[in-house]
Amino acid sequence: MMLDVKDLGRSPGSMRTLTEHVPAPSDLGVALIGVQEGSDIELDLRLEAVHEGILVSGTALAEVTGECGRCLDPLAYDLEVNVQELFFYEGALPSDEEDDEEQRRVEHDLIDLEPVLRDAVVTMLPFQPVCREDCQGLCSECGARLEDEPGHHHEVVDPRWAALADLAKPDRQN
Fold this sequence. Notes:
Radius of gyration: 27 Å
Largest sheet: 7 strands, mixed
Low-confidence stretches: none
C-alpha cells in the first residue's frame, strides 16, 4: 500500500490529508481473529513534511472477523486504531534510540503504509478473542456447547484410580 508523497517535497510545514478506502493486505491478524484480506480499511490520515521526513498520523477503521476462542462462534466488529509514524527521508541520519532497521523510510517519494497498518491493527487484536467475557465454551470431553446445556457434565474416573472403584462395588464376592 504505497503512497506518493512527492507533492509534499522536502518543505517542512507542508501538509495534506488523505481520506480513502483501501483493500486490506493479507495476514492482517492472528490465529483466531483478523481483518479479511481485500476488505475495506478506511483511512483518515494527515501527512506532514517535517525536517527529518514525513509524519503520518490519523486513524484506520477496519472490520475484524474471527471466532471465539472458547465456543468457536463467529465474531465481527469494527476496530479503529491510531496511526502515527515518521518516515525518514533517504540519507537522513538515524536516531540513536532506534535501530536503523526499525525506522521507516521515504523511498523514491513513496511511503509504504502496510507495515505501519499491520503494527497498529495486530497489536490491538485480542490474543484470545471471546464472544462474551462469561462465555462458557465447549465441553472438553464431548464438544457440546455448555451455554446450550446448563449443568452438562461427565462422570470421569481417573484411570489411575479405576482399580479401586471395583473394590467399592457392593456385589463383590470375597
